[in-house]
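HUMAN: Ready with one sample?

ASSISTANT:
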Amino acid sequence: MTRTASLLAAAALALGIAAPASAELAAGAKAPVFVAKGALAGKPFTFSLADALKKGPVVLYFYPKAFTQGCTLEAHAFAEASADFAAAGATVIGMSNDDIATLQKFSTEACRDKFAVAAASPEVIKGYDVALKAVGIPIGLTKRTSYVIGTDGRIVMVHSDMDYRDHVKLTLAAVRKLKPAR
């Protein structure tokens, strides 16, 4: 990211400039499948959405930038709820356009080694319609949008809001609804 783009991104985050609080992909839509480089507990790995869906539902949450206040707090919240997501059979994966070195550090410090984070390519950002924009211009970051994807590859729930606080609660509730009653 160039210095100018970084300054624009920082200004947009500070001013709360973002696209409308809705996501293009709606519940019922087929989730775009992808493979991405990522990190879990500081170690690089490759994430495959198709492979993760074979194990259970996936909570795919996009966040603008590692180590910014809201993104760090959101990662802490997902880490604290990781046992609840695991009990519901779900995989949680955070996505941003940060580089692998940053994601390795973020996966340990902010995610507390509890879940993986991966690099969102321009194709993934476009496919999930999560490009953060300032005055209509993409600034190289993602919106704060969470998707719950069922094992059939369809989106079950979407929550797009730059305020991180409801993402964990709402995605966990959606995942729990998917788990068959015993």
Q: What stands out?
A: The chain has a mean pLDDT of 88. The helical segments are 3-15, 49-53, 69-80, 82-87, 100-109, 122-127, 167-178. The first helix runs from residue 3 to 15. The longest strand covers residues 35-40.
